[in-house]
Amino acid sequence: MYRHSISRQLIDICAKLTQEAYKNVTSRSGDVLVSDGLQRLSSIDTARNVSNGPQPISTGVNQLLDRMETIENTGQVAGLQTGIRKLDGILGGFGEQKFYLLAGRPGMGKSALALQIAGNIAQKGSGVLIFSLEMTEDDISARLMSSLCGVPYDTFNKGNVGDNWKVILDAGARIAELPLEIDATPALKISTIRSIAQKAMLSNQIGLVIIDHVGIARPERPGGNPYQNASDKADAVMALPKQLGCPVLALSQLSREVESRADKRPQMHDLRDSGKWEENADVVMFLYRDEFYNDDTDLRNMAEISIRKNRGGKRGIASVYANIATNRFCDLTTERATYE
């Protein structure tokens, strides 16, 4: 029945588009018609957002026991491991159908941390799909390669590579083999992101979806106020993990109010535009680097990943090594983030 519903929606939209194309062949440009058509097609609910009906409690008990047995047998966390042991120790890895929000002020290194996690996960064989609403594919490639080979990120844009060509080429070859996919289309709606992700999952095994960043995703309903737009996006992102069957890591900017305080470590009320982000996320993480604000700090090349909300788990702070010049994040005990 659900499959037939999708077919009926598709037939209806295509029929209407055909009629409009004949009617407006002289009054509307082709690119406007194509854009309108794509928008309508992306609105088709392919999310399988359909109830499976009530399930006996034994289903949940069996799933829990299976997960506990896996932890016991492997000695590893149950979720998708981020590759940062301190973070995994608090979170237990990324849960299969959970929404993770990583927030921080501009320049803190949110994208660098997210890409480090993506590289770590991809190296272990799990596919990662990145929606980059800000950066291009080559920007992301440069960051990943910088993290791997240790050549500063800005070197990739200056042309003074010098003796670093070999390590850069080696890093590029290794990154190119990872199961990473990037969609760098700007201003996507969350519903469009969902549709693209579902299509990608038909041909690839995707273990994690990353959205960088949700603040610049296009509102579903044009003309709304900032609070309503942010709330709508928060609701849509919250639904994604269950719709896609994998964890979703969404990045977000924090309010400028952080800058007005003496202690600039983020708080929950610093989340921008809507309290729905705090309410909807399974896990809320804040990224803070003291050296960003204090030149004379003793905490150079260090970052705090503060887990302020962890539904069903503990909160805490993961203090990690952070080298923004090379986009590296890792445990303090290793002080380097290379793929094994």
Question: Could you write a compact summary of the structure shown?
Answer:
With about 350 residues, the chain is α/β, with parallel strands linked by helices.
Gross geometry:
globular
Which sequence of SSEs, written as H and E, runs from N to C? HHHHEHEHHEHEHEHEEEE
Number of helices: 10
Strand content: 15-25%
Distance between the termini: 47 Å
- Structurally, the number of domains stands at 2
Q: Give me the CATH superfamily of the largest domain.
A: P-loop containing nucleotide triphosphate hydrolases
Which sheet architecture does the biggest sheet show? 9 strands, mixed
In the CATH hierarchy, the third-tier topology of the largest domain is known as Rossmann fold
Extended strand count: 9
- In the CATH hierarchy, the architecture of the largest domain is 3-Layer(aba) Sandwich
Q: Given the helix and strand composition, which structural class is it?
A: alpha/beta
**Which strand order spans the largest sheet, edge to edge or round the barrel?**
3-2-4-5-1-6-7-8-9
Organism: marine sediment metagenome
Protein name: SF4 helicase domain-containing protein
InterPro entries: AAA+_ATPase, DNA_helicase_DnaB-like_C, P-loop_NTPase
GO cellular component, one term: cytosol
Protein architecture, described:
Helices cover 40% and strands 16% of the residues. The chain is built from ten helices and nine strands. Strands 3-2-4-5-1-6-7-8-9 form a nine-stranded mixed β-sheet, with helices on both faces. Helix 1 packs antiparallel against helix 2, helix 5 packs across helix 6 and helix 6 packs across helix 7. The N and C termini lie far apart (47 Å). The C terminus is likely disordered.
